[in-house]
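EI: anyone free to look at a 563-residue chain?
SC: sure, send it
EI:
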Amino acid sequence: MPQSHHPYPDHLFGDLDKPQKGAARHVRDVLGVRHHAVRSPWLPADGQAVTLRASTSADICARSVVVSFTTDDWATSTDLPFTPTQTTWDTTAWTWLRHWVCELPPMPSGTMLRYYVWAALPGGKRAYAETQSSTSADATPYALWLDPHPNPPAWAADAVTYQVFVDRFNPGAGRDWLQTANLCQPFGGTLRGVTEKLDHIKALGCNTVWLTPIFKSPTHHGYDASDYAQIEPRFGTEADLRELIAGAHARGMRLLLDFVANHTSDQHWAMQSALASPESPERAWYKWEKWPRYTAYYDVRSMPELDLRFGSPARAHLLEIAQKWLALGVDGYRLDYAPGPGQEFWADFRRACRAVNPDCWTFGEVVGPADEQLSFAGTMDGTLDFLTCQALRETFATRGWPLSRFAAYLENNPLYFPRGFSRPAFIDNHDMNRFLFTALGSLEAEHAALTMLYLLPGQPIIYYGTESDLPQAQSIHDPGSPGFDEARGPMNWASATGHPTAGLLRQLADFRAANPWLGQATWQTETLDEAGGEALFRVSGDGHALRVRVRFEAGQPRVGMDA
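SC: here you go
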């Protein structure tokens, strides 16, 4: 039976599955004129027309809805009207919703489509989606690059990724962990330390390595770059990164970097220049309330937000930086806080990356609901699967979900996202309590969740230390806790080999490699016994099938498979 209370609350961004919060978001997202990047097809082929959809609510008097678009970077533009289709009643928002549709003309492969959606109001005024601003300067810009090869690179379909928190992974031969009692301080992990452990990572069955940010930064975590063009000296040098890339490629592995585009450190050279003088040209890099007051990420003053609108110098710089590291041999990027820069920026980012490496893999951190995640289709290869993470934690760690809800999730989630959209999934990461801690130390729960992770559609991601059940002393939410760093302890290499969880990961990776069709499989519930704590699923795809049984014995979960 599900637990009624759990002492360790999870950190899952958004928390929108709660009815009141979900309803509040819905009301916010339907009022005014809305587009939310709703278009079809999500990934248009060469010469295929693109249909845009929008809605207007009864709180504005929309005379018409228009799309203003360009295919030559606003040297010229075209306005096309939407056609009203139907009017519906939205009880949650307590308003009429009028729905509109517009078909853009077919465009050749390689076209960069940029556009705004706006409603014409009485008196010649406008309201732009999604901000409801009266001018395009403050509107939400959209873009779609008609990629000649729109799907993720072929190698990504079989990716099994190992996430390395660089500072906490391995200091390297001849070096010890730095002696500190404060988890928020550097511990001394290095790039050479990662290179030395590539064989360990490969032995777990992982063929892809994702590094947390390695660019120069004043913090141990690196999610606030002070220079994107330099490696953080504590981690090593560009030569060390080259060695790591070469070592990974020699083993048939890929290397991903964490790219933080939304904000920098306040120690970034451009911000330092911008603060030094109101006449500094670097002021154009950032968002300002009134100089010297700047917009900061979640109001963390050490993380000023970049102005990444089309034509900005910060935008051009980041695209160049992305190309620089790809040219060095990096295979792709995990894109931090993707909603911040927005779809239009990421469309340009993807095009810039593919120009250097057509096999580059990009996926974003989008922690909102499924519709928000899908809105990034066409601007990146996919999004991190926070929904599956939540489903696995709620079912096996906290027991907050009954089996019936878990079964419904398994059936519906694969059907929502298009086949060409990457869904890298995980059971924990650097921004939440470790799974084992949340599961109150239950190895059975952890192993059941890991087994499901490798059976489900998408690409599994394993957080460093999972293979050795890296301990966590207290919740990231507890008073006096170091917060996120409580889940970022230094790797316990003394127990990293011969551990039962490591053995399970190797077995699961072998099974996944032998059954690649699981990455696009569908799930169907055959039997469900809620009272008895057991469910049987049929998993099928590409002419293959197997049965997966989930059952709870003495309160502990088990996952088994039948051919």
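EI: The first helix runs from residue 19 to 30.
SC: 👍
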